[in-house]
Amino acid sequence: MPLSRDQQDEIEALRNQSVPTLRATAPGMEAHLYTAYPVLDHGFVRVVDYMGDDAAICQAARVSYGRGTKSVSNDEGLIRYLMRHWHSTPFEMCEIKLHVKLPVFVARQWIRHRTANVNEYSARYSILDREFYIPAPDALAAQSQVNNQGRGAALAGDEAARVLRWLTEDSMRAYDHYEEMISTEGQQGLARELARMNLPANVYTQWYWKTDLHNLLHFLRLRADDHAQYEIRVYAEEICRIVADWVPFAYRAFEDYRMGGATLSATALDCLRRMLKGEEVTQENSGMSKGEWREFARLLD
Q1: I need a labelling partner for 131 at 20 to 30 A (CA). Which of 18, 21, 171, 243 fits?
Q2: Is 109 labeled as ligand-binding?
Q3: Is residue 123 a known part of a binding site?
Q4: What would you give as a GO molecular function for this chain, any one (predicted)?
């Protein structure tokens, strides 16, 4: 179950409260507050709190840059200008706090984004739930032959069934032993901080994760990308949906310039100019390595 009964009761009580405020609010985000959106088989993402909106980005930019922004006639135009020219501090004026339930191996990828405040569920103090991420059959895939950190063709038939069986059986066996080790019935019982090391990386953990919009968009650019691992990408995609309602101007600019745009090296830009002049440019005369050329060619397809 993604949410415990106690968590559901707490959320329901919070949603039923109505407190007047003088601070800026974002109607799109208000609709998301306290709602837990399911991700994977037992995970979720929910907004606990937030600060700022599109107007807060513009307000900060106009204080910082003064006259330099007077030629921009509206907030959306200003935000697009800031995104286009890689300004960062105005986007840091917005913050979000998320409650996330996720498998440990996804959390270890996620925590590499160090520009955030994190408080994780303590397995030294509390007992972890018997909840493990078991992939859906269509999420099982072989190792990619061209990408050392990616997936290839999907597993099928007996092999897929065997892998799912082992994942499930090993997870349950590890948790059985975890429970037996910490039990105090007829024994001293092993400390929780030691017993947890026997649990597999697909066990679920939870944390509160707070970050500003600038760093959140950097996280989303990498983790909502098609090349990101599926298990973290689905969390990023759910967060994208929330951010689009929170700061619609900023998110549209992000989609345009970061997710849908591309950064070209000086060499690639020179090749593009040569192509526009009618010159035949190949990898051999481009000045690029084979890998760079493949990436450049994909951009032009």
Answers
A1: 243
A2: yes
A3: yes
A4: flavin adenine dinucleotide binding
273 by Cβ neighbours in 10 Å (0-12 / 13-18 / 19+) ranks as exposed
**Please, how many CA atoms are within 13 Å of residue 230, restricted to the half-sphere of its CB?**
11
Is 34:17 a contact under the CB 8 Å cutoff? no
Q: Structure pTM?
A: 0.89
111 annotated ligand-binding residue = yes
Question: Is 221 designated active site?
Answer: no
Alpha carbon separation from 282 to 270, 295, 296 (Å, rounded): 13, 13, 11
| Closest by Cα among 61, 8, 27, 45 to 245 | 27
Tell me: is residue 112 an annotated ligand-binding position: yes
Q: Which two tokens stand for residue 297?
A: 């060619």
Specify the CATH number of the domain 5-128+203-259.
Answer: 3.30.1360.170
SS3 83: helix
Task: Flag whether 124 is marked binding.
Answer: yes
Question: How is the chain split into domains, by residue range?
Answer: 5-128+203-259, 134-201, 266-300
**Identified catalytic residue from 23, 223, 258, 274:** 223
Inter-residue contact 69 to 61 (CB < 8 Å): yes
Strands 43-51 and 151-154: unpaired
